[in-house]
Amino acid sequence: MAEANSNSEVSPNMTIYINNLNEKIKIDELKKSLRAVFSQFGEILEVLAFKTLKHKGQAWVIFKEVQSATSALRQMQDFPFYDKPMRIQYAKTKSDIIAKADGTFVPREKRKRHEEKGKKRKDQHDANQAGVGVNPAYPGAYGAMPPLSQVPYPGGAKVPEAPAPPNNILFVQNLPHETTPMMLQMLFLQYPGFKEVRMVETKPGIAFVEYGDEMQSTVAMQALQGFKLTSQNPMLITYAKK
Fold this sequence. Notes:
The chain is α+β, with helices and mostly antiparallel strands. The chain has helices at about 25-40, 65-75, 95-100, 110-130, 180-190, 215-225; strands at about 15-20, 45-50, 60-65, 80, 85, 85-90, 170-175, 195-200, 205-210, 235-240.
């Protein structure tokens, strides 16, 4: 897939081309982070990034709707992504997935098929690992972090607790297991006062996000409440218990 040289030369379409990306980031993490950041603009069909030297620092995000791609291009232009401002244009060449949908697809190399098989194997492995060795009593490694008693024990009912009063730390639930701290940081650092994201390896699906004060955390909570990192995982955000 060739990249676009200028927005003026390319008609708006469902695929955006992104360059000036940090080349030190691993491909799998890069693709997950891009999906996390751009899914706020609409349904994403695919995120493409390759390890070859020719394609380093580049990626393509394929949306289901042209309007989604246009919104993403306008709002995320120069967004600081892994310490580098993203450069975004409409893709010059129609992506395979769109070509298949409209009947103009011409078979090329089998690279994507291999990538998809590898991803399925990795996802299955991650899912298996997530269900092994979880110790509900594990206290966490963060000492001063809010107590994990608010986390439901796997497979067991828990007596409802009163919600925590407003404070500067948010408790985020219902995250997909493949979520990384960097993916969450990209979302939450858009709001003033962001300090850090903390995740617990033994408790997949949750995270703590800290802001400077409760007003700043409240703004972020209201803005991202229900945000979907995947179509099955709307985020549930509350104030953390201290």
